[in-house]
Amino acid sequence: MDVFIDVSERVFNKQAKKLGLGVNVLKAVAIVESMGHGFLDYTPIKPKILFEGHVFYRLLTKAGYDTVEIAKRYPTICFKAYTRSHYRGGNEEFIRLKTAMTIDYDIALESASWGMFQIMGFNYALCGFKDVKTYVNSNYNGADNHFMNFCAFIKNRGLIKFLKDKDFSKFARYYNGVGYKSNKYDDKMRDAYESLEAG
């Protein structure tokens, strides 16, 4: 599986057994839901991230910050409505994150999506971590960690039952949201699974 060159077969097999799934079911989902590689320039130095300014705005508001004022001062990292216009990609996302960290360190980390599966930092508990810093650190320590975080996340979201039934439509509905059909996530998973089974 070239797309998963960074995830060890041992970890695929271990997680499949732990979750009670066929390994090809888990691989099919991972192929569709991942970015292929979880690190910048395919090197295990910095994990891929996207900083989400609308999430930063929401979490800062919830924490009692004056987000109207912060948004005026930092319009590209703190804004009310979702937009793709402020994405910079690659290492530039870390520059945006670093600016946000000067406002609130933990909330900034929670407002970025991390690694191969781009799981938001605020989901750290669903990935099995006690705090966001520990979750973020795990994303610096190899693609196997990205994959194990993903497995914990889908388990704790209650999505494993759909995969046991190979119900990719229901899995995609709850994992990707209502727009899953327009992106054909379920069809892509089904196709990937059938290809893996065929060898």
What number of structural domains do the residues give? Answer: 2
Number of helices: 12
According to DSSP, the number of beta strands is 3
Contiguous uncertain segments of 5+ residues? none
Q: Beta-sheet strand percentage? A: under 5%
What percent of the residues sit in helical stretches (DSSP H or I)?
Answer: 40-55%
Order of helices and strands: HHEHHHHEEHHHHHH
Span of the ends, CA to CA:
11 Å
What's the pLDDT, averaged over the residues?
A: 93
Largest sheet, strands/sense/barrel: 3 strands, antiparallel
By secondary-structure content and strand pairing, the structural class works out as mainly alpha
Give the strand order, joined by hyphens, for the main sheet.
1-2-3
Shape: globular
Radius of gyration: 17 Å
What's a concise summary of this model?
The chain has 12 helices and 3 strands.
Describe what this molecule looks like in 3D.
By secondary structure, the chain is mainly alpha-helical. 54% of the residues lie in helices and 4% in strands. It has helices at residues 9-19, 23-33, 53-62, 67-73, 92-101, 105-110, 132-138, 143-156, 160-164, 168-176, 180-183, 185-198, and strands spanning 49-51, 112-114, 119-120. Helix 1 (9-19) packs parallel to helix 8 (143-156) and helix 2 crosses helix 12 (185-198). The termini are close together. The mean pLDDT is 93.
